[in-house]
Amino acid sequence: MVKTSLLFTVALILLIASFFASLCMGRYEIDFSTLAHFLGWKWLDIGAMPRDATLLSNILFDIRLPRIVAVILVGAALAVSGGAFQAMFVNPLVSPGILGVLAGSSFGAALGIMISDSWIGVQLFSFAFGFLAVMCALLIARIYGKNAPTTILLVLGGVISSALFSALLSLVKYMADPYNKLPAIVYWLMGSFSAVDMKTLLNVSVPLALSMIVLSLMGKYLNILSLGDDDAKALGVRVGLVRNTAILLATLLSALTVVVAGMIGWVGLIIPHIARFMVGADNRVMLPMCLLLGGIFLLWVDTLCRTVLSVEIPVGIVTALVGIPIFVFALKNAKKGFA
Amino acid sequence: MSFYEARNLYFSYQQKKVLDGVDIAIPEGSIVSLLGANGAGKSTLMKILLGLLSPDRGEVILEGKNLSEYSIKKRAEHIAYVPQSTKIVFAFSALQIVLMGRIAFEAWFAKASSEHDKQLCYAAMERLGIVHLAERNYQTLSGGEKQLVLIARALAQGAKILVMDEPISGLDYGNQLRLLEAILTLSKEGYTFLKSTHFPEHALMLEGQTYAIKDGKILASGDTKSVVTQELINTLYQTDITLFTTHFGYKTCVPNFLNQHI
Question: In terms of residue numbers, what domain contains B244?
Answer without folding.
Answer: 229-262
